[in-house]
Design brief:
about 150 residues; alpha+beta; six-stranded antiparallel beta sheet
Length: about 150
């Protein structure tokens, strides 16, 4: 049994938060992950003009990233041994998103063995849902304990 398998759920969740913060992509998208509890996450960030498309609203890239990450970490919060992989992700963008604080929330839906399903939603500064996503996540062969940001 590896070191990750011995972590308490709380320690696993804090390690996932450190892993998220250590990912190079998150240097381009200044955001913070909180694992609220097993199967539930929250990511907060502030959107600015650097995230806009030519029409003056947030580009879909940011919707996808936040929705995928929130659902992904909701699923991985239930798996302490290995890093999960996104195998499919569908998004629905329901409103344009302007500058300001945004929050993505994720929730595990089903699955416990090889494939897990999780959903997420994106909320703007006024409390409106602006997007929703659903993904499937598969266990990889990458031990979480082998990832520097997780340690």
């Amino acid at each position: 049994m590896g070191r990750a398998a011995r972590l308490s759920p709380e320690a696993h969740h804090r390690a996932l938060e450190r892993l998220y913060a250590s990912a190079p992509i998150n240097h381009a998208f200044a955001s913070a992950l909180t694992v609220v509890e097993a199967g539930r996450t929250r990511i907060a960030m502030t959107a600015g003009p650097e995230h806009f498309h030519a029409g003056g609203a947030v580009h879909g890239t940011l919707y996808f990233k936040l929705l995928d990450d929130a659902a992904f970490y909701a699923a991985n919060s239930l798996v302490a041994e290995v890093f999960m992989l996104t195998t499919a992700f569908n998004i629905l963008m329901t409103r344009p998103l302007g500058p300001g604080p945004i929050v993505a929330e994720g929730r595990w839906v089903s699955g416990e063995r090889r494939v897990l399903i999780a959903e997420s939603w994106l909320i703007d500064a006024e409390g409106h849902e602006v997007g929703r996503g659903t993904g499937t996540f598969m266990r990889s062969r990458i031990p979480l304990a082998s990832l520097p940001g997780y340690a």
